[in-house]
Amino acid sequence: MSKAYRLLNHGPTVLVSAAHGGRRNVMAAAWNMPLDFNPPKVAVVIDKQAYTRTLIEASGEFVLSVPPVALLQQVMAAGSQSGRDLDQDKFEACGLQAASVSAVGAPLVEGCVAWLACKVLPEPEMAARYDLFLAEVVAAWADSSAFSDGRWHIERDEQRSLHHVAGGAFFTTGAMVQG
Ligand SMILES: Cc1cc2nc3c(=O)[nH]c(=O)nc-3n(C[C@H](O)[C@H](O)[C@H](O)COP(=O)(O)O)c2cc1C
């Protein structure tokens, strides 16, 4: 947990998932960041239009999943249509697999390289004014083939994370250099 901030420190676009009252949903979010070390906290901007936000506000929980470039099309699908307008579950509509976790009611997204289970720190004024949500990370995991002992060591190109530029263009995580 003391290294959970490192799962977001390099600025990946994430998938935000939430569930409430038998409904679940997922969206893409580039505007996220770590906020504290221990206990780890995060910040994420979630627009008022997002159906995922409705579920987050109702449940007080969400999961951030860090998708690899292998899920690029699914990330774009999650980021370009609203679950509010779909007849079917958005995970299925986007070709994403959900898995439940014990830490929170929100599901994680399978096939990602890292996951942070989060409980919202209630700041209703901040959410209303800036669409900004702060949360405490209550559990975190990573694919050990990409992150272990608190360090990223991405070896396979398809595991590289996505870094949104604009308009659906991304950089993927590049070579690590040591300062
Ligand atoms: C690459 C990418 C990054 C995005 N980043 C954010 C973000 O940081 N915050 C946000 O509110 N919406 C962001 N979006 C837009 C939402 O993902 C989009 O509005 C989505 O349809 C909301 O889904 P929902 O209504 O099913 O929750 C992003 C979209 C893409 C494609």
Kindly describe this structure.
It is built from four helices and 13 strands. By secondary structure, it is α+β, with helices and mostly antiparallel strands. The mean pLDDT is 97. The chain has a single domain, classed as Pnp Oxidase, Chain A (Roll). 16% of the residues lie in helices and 37% in strands. The strands form four sheets. The protein has a seven-stranded antiparallel beta sheet with strand order 2-1-5-8-9-4-3. Strands 6-7 form a two-stranded antiparallel ribbon. Strands 10-11 form a two-stranded antiparallel sheet.
- Cα-to-Cα separation, first versus last residue: 25 Å
Q: What is the approximate shape?
A: globular
Strand percentage, roughly? 35-45%
Q: Provide the succession of SSEs.
A: EEEEHEHHEEEHEEEEE
In short:
By secondary structure, this protein is α+β, with helices and mostly antiparallel strands. It is 16% helix and 37% strand.
Using brief descriptors, characterize the structure shown.
4 helices, alpha+beta, 37% strand, 179 residues, binds flavin mononucleotide, 16% helix
